[in-house]
Write a structure and sequence with these properties.
The complex is a heterodimer of chains A (321) and B (344).
Chain A (H helix, E strand, L loop, with lengths): L4 H31 L4 H5 L6 H11 L5 H13 L13 H36 L4 H15 L2 H15 L15 H35 L2 H8 L4 H12 L1 H25 L5 H10 L3 H29 L3 H4 L1
Chain B lengths: L19 E11 L5 E12 L4 E5 L6 H8 L8 E9 L2 E2 L5 H7 L4 E4 L13 H12 L4 H14 L5 H4 L9 H13 L5 E5 L7 H18 L2 E6 L2 H7 L2 E6 L2 E7 H6 L4 H8 L48 E2 L5 E2 L15
Parallel strand pairs in B: 3-8, 3-9, 6-7, 7-8
Antiparallel strand pairs in B: 1-2, 1-4, 4-5, 9-10, 10-12, 11-12
Classes of the chains: A mainly alpha (321), B alpha/beta (344).
Chain lengths: 321, 344
């Protein structure tokens, strides 16, 4: 399980790809936001501003400069950790994200734990006995999870477990650092809603991958050696579906980060998702850019981590890379 | 390293009794909601300790299915068997799953056709060897590793202490098949079933693998069932040759006798279609037609539609004749025909 030289080289190459990907994401968002209708200067100038006042604000913020210059200016300071200040609150964007991100991370992590804890055993149990009642339940759950929109699940959960039976709060959030149990309690409903599609995806993919492994010729060899069904399933099956597990978890995690944009608004969680929506609506482009850059960084880092895990789990990765 | 006794004291070692005794074995495969096909039909044969027996026939004759049923490895819920499989006096068909598990890899082993896919790609050769040993013997990891290296050495793999750390994709096809053989023979089984072990390999490697299998089984007095469509190879390896056609045994004779004078027209046809360098005729003879599919078996002799000696009486179902000379054949004309062998 030690990384070979070839795997190390592969990881090195992935690290080098990291920079251009982040740069491209930053560049495209910056340009798209510039194309979006509405002038932030007009917004900042307040009601009935004079043309001179708007021009003054443009010059003050540097909006009058060529877009490319604005981008280079913003990106180079972003590299040093300075994401400039919110147009609305004047607060540094970095501080806004730093204070909001823990809520998002907590919710997504919670949802991932639920999705893996339910999806993985369900998928494996279904694959061990295809066509059985366990398999039917697993297939049913995964069809339901894929088909149902998570914000709708969220609203149903609120209606039942917050309004009718007030077990969990309908909205709001508690910082994990101050009150861990309260934080988990408050994040339960959004996390369940967020985990639905993840449960579905993990169950489905793991079931398919495990069935493929169990029908491969080497499983027949293992049985011919006298290994029990359990040893084949848990020892050989799990290591062989490892690649699929990592891929699915990465994919689901990245999608969940995106889904927080809607779900945090539904549950009024002060995370980066709701910040993004709020800033976009108020044309606070500086905050939007900062949040997207940070989300891109998180996604790329998670993907890099997945690549490292591939190299550790599957000895053939080095041969293919 | 303390010696491990590979001899199982529970084995009777009764020389008079055959090691394996298959009688009236039929294998059915589900073909629809209510119907099934009998792909192996009342197969009967014995294998003595240390004996090498060839199971020959075209694709679809039921050789591999017969082999898998001896290990109880037919796909569950899709295939089932009838008849008895006696191994060392015990009926395999009546064994529980855990009893079967103790038999597999320990007393009966099997090697498969595809060395490329028959080994787990994410486990090292060493792991795959030691887990077999540790499944059947109480052994420390260290001890199992030592034995794994010896086992690889025995099958002629160079630098075995290095190879144990390597994964199957590091090895060539021939080396993988050697590793496969090492795994199958790690526990010194009494019976080895080799299912087309050389078909997927280069011709030069084929000869090496066959020599290796022959050497090990004769050194250790392991009984061998060698499944192949290649009569040339089988005649080299096996004392006795069982010819199967469309799920039935059609002939069971000592190899030399078959080569000299086969009793069944199908055996004769197979022999004629083995390429030989002495014959300079322009075309290699072949048997016309194909093996009938299990759902469209001829009611009488199954080979009759393809047989050049077919006549009145052949449309009747054929029984196995046990001749005075000990040979077994499923053809009512076995006394009348003088068929061409490989040597005549």
């Amino acid at each position: 399980m030690v990384l070979t030289r070839a795997s190390q080289r592969m990881i090195g190459r992935r690290l080098l790809q990291f920079i251009p990907v982040v740069f491209a994401v930053a560049f495209i968002t910056f340009m798209l936001l510039n194309l979006a209708p509405g002038d932030p200067a007009e917004l900042l100038a307040g009601e009935f501003p004079t043309e001179e006042r708007i021009q003054e604000i443009r010059e003050y913020y540097g909006f009058d400069r060529p877009v490319i210059v604005q981008f280079v200016d913003w990106f180079s300071s972003a590299m040093t950790g300075d994401l400039s200040n919110s147009l609305l609150s004047r607060e540094p964007v970095f501080d806004i994200i730093a204070s909001r991100f823990p809520y998002t991370l907590m919710m997504v992590t919670y949802a991932m734990i639920i999705a893996i804890a339910i999806g993985a055993p369900l998928g494996i149990a279904a694959a061990a006995r295809p066509g059985s009642w366990v398999d039917s339940i697993a297939t049913g759950i995964s069809s339901f999870g894929v088909a149902v929109p998570y914000f709708w699940v969220g609203m149903v959960l609120v209606a039942v477990f917050a309004l009718k039976y007030p077990i969990f709060p309908a909205t709001g959030s508690v910082p994990f650092s101050e009150d861990p149990i309260g934080a988990i309690h408050a994040a339960t409903l959004p996390a369940i809603a967020l985990s639905m599609s993840g449960i579905a995806e993990i169950t489905r993919q793991l079931r398919a991958a495990m069935i493929e492994v169990l029908s491969s010729p080497y499983v027949r060899t293992l049985r011919a050696k006298g290994l029990s069904r359990q040893a084949v399933l848990f020892r050989h099956g799990l290591r062989n579906v490892g690649i699929t597990v990592i891929t699915v978890i990465t994919l689901v995690f990245n999608r969940k980060i995106g889904a927080t944009v809607v779900l945090e608004t539904v549950f009024a969680v002060p995370g980066v998702g709701s910040t993004l929506v709020h800033s976009a609506v108020n044309k606070d482009y500086v905050v939007v850019q900062g949040v997207i850059l940070v989300i891109a960084l998180v996604v790329v880092t998670v993907n890099l981590l997945a690549d490292v895990l591939y190299a550790i789990i599957d000895p053939r990765v080095e041969a293919e890379a | 390293m303390k010696p491990v006794s590979y001899r199982d004291p529970s084995l009777t070692d009764n020389a008079a009794q055959p090691l394996l005794s298959v009688s009236d074995l039929s294998v059915y495969f589900r073909a629809g909601r209510k119907s099934s096909n009998r792909v192996v039909d009342n197969v009967t044969f014995d294998v003595a300790r240390g004996e090498t027996v060839g199971l020959v026939g075209e694709s679809g004759s039921g050789k591999t299915v017969t082999g898998l049923s001896l290990l109880g490895l037919l796909p569950e819920g899709i295939a089932w068997t009838e008849g008895q499989i006696g191994f060392d006096g015990k009926d395999i068909g009546k064994m529980s799953e855990s009893e079967m598990r103790r038999l597999r890899g320990r007393h009966i082993s099997m090697i498969f056709q595809e060395p490329m896919t028959a080994l787990d790609p994410v486990f090292t050769i060493g792991e795959q060897l030691t887990e077999t040993l540790r499944t059947h013997f109480p052994m420390s990891k260290r001890e199992a590793r030592e034995r794994a290296i010896t086992a690889l050495e025995d099958v002629g793999i160079p630098l075995p202490h290095k190879r144990v750390e390597e994964y199957p994709h590091h090895l060539s096809g021939g080396m993988r098949q050697r590793a496969m053989i090492a795994i199958a023979l790690a526990c010194e089984p009494d019976l080895l079933i080799a299912d087309e072990p050389t078909t997927a390999l280069d011709v030069t490697i084929q000869a090496q693998i066959i020599d290796l299998i022959m050497k090990i089984v004769s050194d250790r007095n392991t009984a061998l069932i060698f499944i192949s469509h290649n009569l040339g190879v089988v005649s080299q390896v096996c004392d006795r040759m069982i010819t199967m056609y469309a799920g039935q045994v059609v002939e069971d004779s000592v190899t030399d006798e078959v080569l000299e004078q086969p009793l069944h027209p199908y055996s004769s046809g197979l022999l004629a279609s083995v390429p030989r360098k002495s014959v300079s005729s322009s075309r290699l003879p072949s048997i016309p037609g194909r093996v009938p599919s299990p759902d469209a078996m001829p009611p009488g002799c199954r080979f009759e539609p393809r047989c050049t000696f077919a006549q009145a009486g052949c449309e009747a179902a054929q029984v196995l004749h046990r001749r005075a000379d000990g040979r077994v054949v499923r053809c009512h004309r076995h006394d009348q025909l003088t068929l061409k062998g490989a040597l005549t």
